[in-house]
Amino acid sequence: MKIFQPNWVHHDEKSIFAIDIHPSGERFATGGQGCDSGRVVIWNMAPVLSEEAEANKSIPRILCQMDNHLACVNCVRWSGNGVMLASGGDDKLVMIWKKTVGGSGGIGAFGGSGKSVEHWRCISTLRGHAGDVLDLSWSPQDRWIASCSVDNTIIIWDAQHFPKIVHVLKGHTGLVKGVTWDPVGKFIASQSDDRSLRVWKTTDWSCFKTITEPFEECGGTTHILRLSWSPDGQYLVSAHAMNGGGPTAQIIERDGWKCDKDFVGHRKAVTCVRFHNSILKRLAPKTNKLQQYCCLAVGARDRSLSIWLTALQRPLVVIHDLFQDSILDLSWSCDGYTLLACSGDGKIACLQFTAQELGTPLSEEDKNILYQRMYGKNANFDLTVQAEKEMIVENSDFLNVSKSNPVPPTLIPQQQQQQQQGIQKDSTNQIYTANKTHSVTVQSSSSLGQAPTPILKQIETKTADGKRRITPMFIPLNDDNGPVVNSANVSTPIEFGSKSTEGMSSVEMTKIASEVHETPASLDNAMNVTENTSKLDNRLKKLATVPPQKAEPMPSTEQVAGSSSLNPPTPNQRLVERTRQPTYPTGKATVIQGNFFKAFGEVRVQVQNNSVKTSYGNLCRVLGMSVNAQRIEKKIWETVVGSPVVCFAVGAKYAIVCSQDHTIRVLDIKTGTPIFPVVSLTSPAVQCAFSSNSQLVAVVTESGILRIWNVSEKSVVLSTNCSEIMSGSYVTILHVSDQGMPFIVLSNGSSYCYCRKLDSWMLLNSSDPIIRHGLIGNKANAPVRNIKVYPLSTIQSYGNFSGPKTNSFAELHSAAWQTPASIAFIENQIKICEMISSPTELKYWYSMLGFQLALNGSEEKIRQVLDELLGASHNIDNRMGEDDNPSVLGISKHVLMEDVLNHLKSQTKWQRIYTEYLDQLKFLKERDGRDKPLME
Asked: What are the structural domain ranges in the chain?
């Protein structure tokens, strides 16, 4: 951690009451007192973060200064998309600023003599408060902005139609000094001098909950009370509260609005709290399990700042006497590693962290998965949709379901998840690793050093009413640090003080780590963990510092055994020794080093390259071993190969061995005898794999030639070439289905499946925006790893494409393309499932289509889908009924139609369409003599 106080950021020695970092991280804004008016200044972030930029005279420090407020500015806040800046002050006004190409709106630096680098114009002045405006907060997706005032009210403004007022929240009997939004858009919270915190519903703007107990002893001793909501929506942390006569920051749990935990340790009233913008993740150092947690900064009138992680039982760091006056505002950068704080003494401080200290932010995809699990909605929720207005329910089926949140379908049914986990553990060779050619042999897993016994119990006391008082204390930043892993697994809701959240099983974590084929050869260098220290920036103290590093997810927690470039292990480091087959950084065949084996059931095949020396050259030994229940090995056969082996695979009946001289051998796994003669291709193979029934075997060569053979029939099933889709990349994963369809994943993350009917490669995953949006928006589970039952989802889960590059809350709130893009993606998924014969996934994607149509579809599209499933002879438009097949992949279209109709029940507006098509479905089933339950 580094701390720096840029003395050139000031308001002519006047107080700075607010600070906020732009979503891009390129600038930040401050608000406070000017010489004779309120002042808003937009600063360049580069000179704050870089000494070189600070010393470079050509790089401006101040970008724009606005002195339009008639009195002191108490708050400045950027919109989520960074387009607008809101400021509120003692002149009772809220001003909305927007950047323009040129013109008026800003003056030069402190006095008007200089020229503004950027031009920001006030596009709207919001008048509605009868007193000073103390705090502002933009809603998720920038649909609304809330302002609170000493007039005891909170005003909700329509951010798309300024200066329209949506609602005025009344109920507080004292000055309202802080306001914050629930990240999933259901609530807004406010804190007041009337010793209460109120939670308001955004559906009808009514007061949902009033919390008074933690604030009964409080006095009006702070200028502001900036509360904050955690990014997972589970915790609301207030500013000034009291516990046992001491100031605290109260933790309010969303579940039951319990108030039994608080942050204790600050000597004077807490003025502001600010959660990190992202949910963070890392591996717990002792359990090696994936942690997900939130980070919170707390500032107080005692001039101290504390940083807390919800995964720890004590603060990460406490900094005393950071300023000469109270800390008044805090702001995290969107990349998550910079924290700015401002004070009443007119100065600011910059704290820079590293990924090793704080962790890695959760991706938009993973955050959406978490929102789906916890709230039944993702980041693309529509805040403009109010509760349906007293709609008359005409169908009794809608009486119960219309009031509940629609729940998206899940690929793996809940009752099968435990069975699925058992299958993954018991049959990893058949299902979990069926498409891998890189195998690893775990030899040992031990700690290389005995860590000092950590302080497991936090410093706390209990009051008479049983409340806990947690005292902040400084701890070394490397005490609980560990490398993070890039995984889409989402844990259960985050608990304060929990050591680790429930995540992947150890078997799943090991398998995912071993599946990363793009791991660079310099993994040992990338995995070096240096000791984290807390120190001042060298511009304040002459210490050698390292610039903060960007958060880069590490592929795995394993390090290559015997690496000479490893640092001496620190007490908290662990080294997992593995015998690892070399990766293919260029897609070229690489000779297997050392002894290497792969197993199927009780038989394993071992390869020993260059183990036999002859006058003709070196030979490779290939051995078949049987392992009994007592784990006693017995050699059952042995053969030799005249060229080093570069890859091999093992199935239930056969083994395939591919050599450097382009030759391929298929052997009987029990006897080692060849099944058919040695074959040779134009280049050596880099990937090989058996189908799950072991009847088919596939190989891909360096040049992209793909062959699939039926081993028992000694015939070719498919002969094609991957070079037309490789375009500079190479195959990292190969799988062949029991039907003879090859699936490949390329090093660039794209994945394909070859369709013999179309004589073409079908695109499964790529950087295409529709596919990226579809996979992120519709994936409600952790990555599926069952190639036999869920081939499409398994292959698509190996894509390494990131989520939106901009703040999705802001960018997507009014994006008209989202609904057609989602439906287009789902319909393409359905067609792929038909081609690859995946009935389970076909049913899932039809259910997902119904879910999306119920939420965002049009009547025309809903009727089109239902008509197609109803059958050709009953379509309103006969042109759509050319295919009168009553089933798809053995699933009745009427069963799929029932699933779609079931999702329509979640929205009362579709009740007439639901009733119309349900009646037609009943008529058809009665006519056909079927007696099956229709809807559950």
From this structure: 2-100+114-372, 816-875+883-935
Q: What angle do CA 213, 218, 224 make, to 5 degrees?
A: 110
Distance CA 810, CA 141 (A): 4
- Residue 192 belongs to what H/E stretch? strand 187-192
The residues pairing with 29 across neighbouring beta strands, listed in sequence order, are: 20, 42
Helix 364-375 × helix 769-778 angle, to 10°: 30
What are the DSSP E strand ranges found in 590-662? 595-600, 603-614, 617-627, 633-641, 645-650, 654-659
Reading phi first (left if > 0) and then psi (alpha if -120 to 50, else beta), residue 829 is in alpha
Residue 135 clears pLDDT 90, i.e. is over it: yes
Confidence of residue 383 (pLDDT cuts 50, 70, 90): low
What CA–CA distance (Å, rounded) separates 508 from 505?
Answer: 5
Q: Which residue has the tokens 């420090």?
A: 61
Confidence check: pLDDT of 531 > 50: no
Q: What are the angstrom distances between the C-alpha of 251 and each of 168, 185, 218?
A: 27, 19, 16
Of the two residues 337 and 403, the one the predictor is more confident about is 337
Q: What angle do CA 800, 801, 804 make, to 5 degrees?
A: 150
pLDDT (mean) for 867-896 = 71
Q: Is 390 left (phi over 0), alpha (psi -120 to 50) or beta?
A: left
Positive or negative, the CA dihedral 857, 862, 868, 869 is positive
Apex 792 CA angle, 787 and 795, nearest 5: 65
Average pLDDT of span 561-569: 35
Q: What does the chain come to in residues?
A: 936
Q: How far apart are CA 216 and CA 219, in angstroms?
A: 9
Alpha-carbon gap, residue 289 to 508, rounded angstroms? 11
What average pLDDT does range 548-575 have in this prediction?
Answer: 35
The pair of three-digit structure tokens given for residue 254, joined into one six-digit string: 């969303």
Phi, psi of 464 (to 5 degrees): -65, -30
For 2-100+114-372, the fitting CATH number among 2.130.10.10, 3.40.50.300, 3.20.20.70, 2.60.40.1180 is: 2.130.10.10
Q: How many CB atoms lie within 10 A of CB 836?
A: 21
pLDDT attached to residue 407: 76
Condensed to tens digits (0 to 9), the pLDDT of residues 277-299 reads 899 988 887 777 888 899 999 99
pTM confidence score: 0.49
| Better pLDDT: 249 or 877 | 249
Residue 850: per-residue pLDDT: 93
d(CA 256, CA 253): 7
Residue-wise burial string across 217-255, b where 16 or more C-beta atoms lie within 10 A, e elsewhere: ebeeebbbbbbbbbbbbbbbbbbbbbbeebbbbbbbbbe
Task: Give the DSSP per-residue string, 681-705.
Answer: -SS-EEEEEE-TTSSEEEEEETT-E
Q: Which of 867, 842, 794, 852 shows the shortest CA–CA distance to 820?
A: 852
The CA-based angle 426-428-434, given to 5 degrees, is 145
Contact 796, 65 (CB under 8 A): no
pLDDT score, position 374: 82
Comparing CA positions, the residue from 521, 470, 465 lying closest to residue 497 is: 470
d(CA 485, CA 504): 12
Instruction: State the Cα–Cα distance between residues 66 and 42, nearest whole angstrom.
Output: 8
DSSP state letter for 141: G
Q: Which of 625, 667, 673 is nearest to 645 (CA)?
A: 667
Nearest to 799 by CA among 431, 518, 400: 518
Q: What percent of the chain has pLDDT over 70?
A: 72
Question: How far is residue 802's CA from residue 333's CA, in Å, rounded to a whole number?
Answer: 19
**CB contact at 8 A, 544 and 533:** no
pLDDT of residue 548: 41
Q: In Å, what is the CA distance from 83 to each residue of 133, 136, 160, 916? A: 22, 16, 12, 46
